[in-house]
Amino acid sequence: MKNQKKSLSPYYTDLKVKERIDTLLFENAKIWSNIGTGSSLDVVTRKEGEKQWKLLAKEIKSLDKDYYNIVCPYGIDS
Asked: pTM of the full predicted structure?
């Protein structure tokens, strides 16, 4: 039954939603991989990284709540 719910998620059924969510997750990966590097992508502090992730996660939630619950099973404030 769990697999059936996954297959109905817009992430798995709508290519535009999947591409947008994948882009948001890639942005998140760039945030965390560049902290402390001094590069142009460096957000400098963990607190700023978390702030930016919350914005990205909220957009993921607006696109597909089911997939958001997979990516953030405890919410974005945990």
From this structure: 0.82
